[in-house]
Every structure is written in structure tokens, then in C-alpha cells.
Design brief:
32% of the residues lie in helices and 26% in strands. By secondary structure, it is an alpha/beta fold. The chain folds into 2 domains: 195 residues, P-loop containing nucleotide triphosphate hydrolases (Rossmann fold, 3-Layer(aba) Sandwich), CATH 3.40.50; 127 residues, Hypothetical Protein Yjia, Chain: A,domain 2, CATH 3.30.1220. It is globular and about 70 Å long.
């Protein structure tokens, strides 16, 4: 499977600088980069060789293409060209959104196409935030809030322009998305591996430290329009039946889809407790669960992290409890009837 990383962030937040730096890095070789609006990204001419096609070949061995039409068709096209040998055999894909974009439709495109799902897997979302103007942007631009909320990694840019990163900004980011590590950078200088490993669990097996989830609750002005966005975790000691998980996700998608900004989890499935399932979803769309070969740590609890708007934790918890109990009761009744 070829991992796909989505790079997003508001206008002026430093995506161009970060991407330009990545394009110069040997570690970025064998990466296909899809740019939402090619003219928006000012790559230096000495870095690229232009062509009449939608592709340009970079001296680092990377590949870029501008979206012409549907993203799904673009992804299918670069996979076809990879198979034909007309482009370098890339090993990962990075999709850079425009600064005003809601990343959800792009994530949906990657997650929803069955043919692409056989070749590509969404590995994570990286969002750039301007250390100088980030707080003002979050206060004025709703798009920037969603870009932060869906992130697996937050890259704090332009840190060289401030004496110290404003505590109000870091508190706001932590309140919006405490599950995303904050990576400070200046001039786009950041190890690409710190972006490409944007998986939803860390080597210790943690999605997010539970004690950090509500650390910043109430720390920001309740009159701000992101007050309705909350991050919380559901923890389960016992493995969850596969049917219960499926029903739970279906109900969430049908009734809460528009407000479910991001859901990610690592779960013990009752039918296969030794191989944890990894799930992630955006609004009404959920990626097909993937299974790890083994648990990444001794912690084998099921953990689901929600970033949602107007979705109370008590509702999600009660819903999962009710579905789990009903599935177990039905299975018990069926087993007794068959005896």
C-alpha cells in the first residue's frame, strides 16, 4: 500500500516554504506531490523541469502534478503512469491543498474510491500554522479551524519571526486538537520523517495521553466560534465485537456525519484480539479498517479519539454502550437457542 499524506494550512501559513524545503531533501525522493492549484505554489525554476503534461519532474527525483479535474482521476492517472514506468516509482503521495480549502472533501476522495483503496491508504493530515498570525487567523477564518481540527501533525511555522511562540496560540491549538503533536519550524526546516510518520498511534501505542484531552478545556474565550468543537476519547477495557463497531460507525455517519470532523482509533476486536484494528474517518466517511500485525505496546485497550462539533461525549459513550450490549445480548440469545 502506498501511504497518502494531506498537507493543508491557511493562506500564508508556510505550506509553500515547507514544501519547497521538502523538495530539496533526499528523504523526499520517490514521493508524488499533488498540488491543488499549481500556480499557487512558487517553486523556484531551478528546482523543476516544466513539461506540457500535468507532471513536472524535479531534480530530487520527486514528482508533482496539478489537479486537472477530479482528484480521484488524478490519483488513478499517476498510479497508471507508475505502472507503465513513465514516472518514477514513487513510494508515497503528498496532496497539498489550497490555503482556503476545506480538507474534508480531499480526504473523502482518498478514502471513498474502492479502486484506489486497493493501492493507496491515508496515512495522515499535516497542517501548517503561522506562529506570527495564527491566532488572528483562527479568530477570523473558520476554514483554518477545521484545518487544525482534522490534523494528525501541526507544524508551527515562522518561529524565527517571534521571540517566543504566543502561549495563547499554543493553548488554542491544544484546545482544538490535543491529539496532534506540535512541531515548531523556521524556514520550513523539518525532518520529512516527522511528517510522513503521521500515523494515529505512536510507538508507545498511545493515541493521545488521556490526561491531556481536557487540559485546556475552558482556557479560551467561550464567545469564539470554535467553542463548539471538542476533543474527547472513549476507552474500552474489553474487546469490541466487529458487528458492534460497524453499527456504531454507521450510526455516527448517518446522524452525526457533518459534525464529526475527525475520528481515529486503535481497537481490540473480539474476533481478533491479538491484531488491533486501526480506523479513521472524516465526517460521514470512514476508511476501511486496517489491522496491525501486533499491538505496539502492552496497552491493549480500545481507544477512540473524537474531534467533533456539537457532539457530546456522553452521547457517543451511551451510543457505543447500547450497541455493544445489544450485539452481545443477541449473540448470547442465538447461542442459547442453538443448544
Amino acid at each position: 500500500m502506498i501511504p497518502v499524506t494531506v498537507l493543508t494550512g491557511f493562506l500564508g501559513s508556510g505550506k509553500t516554504t515547507l514544501l519547497g524545503k521538502l523538495l530539496r531533501s533526499p528523504a523526499f525522493a520517490r514521493t508524488a506531490v499533488i498540488i491543488n492549484e499549481f500556480g499557487e505554489v512558487g517553486l523556484d525554476h531551478d528546482l523543476i523541469e516544466t513539461s506540457d503534461e500535468s507532471f513536472v519532474t524535479l531534480q530530487t527525483g520527486c514528482l508533482c502534478c496539478s489537479i486537472r479535474g477530479d482528484l480521484v482521476l488524478t490519483l488513478a492517472d499517476i498510479l497508471r503512469r507508475r505502472d507503465e514506468g513513465t514516472v518514477a516509482p514513487f513510494e508515497r503521495v503528498v496532496i497539498e491543498t489550497s490555503g482556503l480549502a476545506d480538507p474534508a472533501p480531499i480526504l473523502h476522495a482518498v478514502m471513498s474510491d474502492d479502486a484506489l483503496a486497493e493501492r493507496l491508504t491515508l496515512s495522515g493530515v499535516v497542517t501548517t500554522v503561522d506562529a506570527v498570525h495564527g491566532e488572528e487567523t483562527l479568530a477570523r477564518q473558520p476554514e483554518s479551524i477545521k484545518q487544525v481540527a482534522v490534523a494528525d501533525r501541526l507544524v508551527l511555522t515562522k518561529t524565527d519571526l517571534v521571540d517566543a511562540v504566543p502561549a495563547a496560540l499554543t493553548d488554542r491549538l491544544a484546545a482544538l486538537n490535543p491529539s496532534a503533536p506540535l512541531l515548531p519550524t523556521s524556514f520550513g526546516d523539518l525532518d520529512p520523517e516527522r511528517l510522513f510518520d503521521a500515523r494515529i498511534w505512536d510507538p508507545a501505542g498511545k493515541l493521545v495521553p488521556e490526561h491531556d484531552l481536557h487540559k485546556h478545556h475552558g482556557a479560551h474565550d467561550r464567545n469564539r466560534h470554535d467553542e463548539r468543537i471538542a476533543c474527547f476519547a472513549l476507552i474500552r477495557e474489553q474487546p469490541i465485537p466487529a458487528v458492534a463497531l460497524t453499527l456504531f460507525l454507521e450510526v455516527l455517519a448517518e446522524h452525526c456525519g457533518a459534525d464529526l470532523l475527525r475520528l481515529k482509533g486503535i481497537l481490540a476486536i473480539a474476533e481478533s484480539p491479538e491484531r488491533p484494528a486501526v480506523i479513521h474517518g472524516v465526517q460521514h466517511m470512514f476508511h476501511a479498517p486496517g489491522f496491525l500485525e501486533r499491538w505496539p505496546s502492552d496497552d491493549r485497550r480500545s481507544r477512540l479519539v473524537f474531534i467533533a462539533r456539537d457532539l457530546p461525549r456522553v452521547f457517543a459513550e451511551a451510543l457505543l454502550d447500547a450497541i455493544d450490549a445489544e450485539v452481545r445480548e443477541t449473540a448470547t440469545t442465538a447461542a442459547e437457542a442453538s443448544e
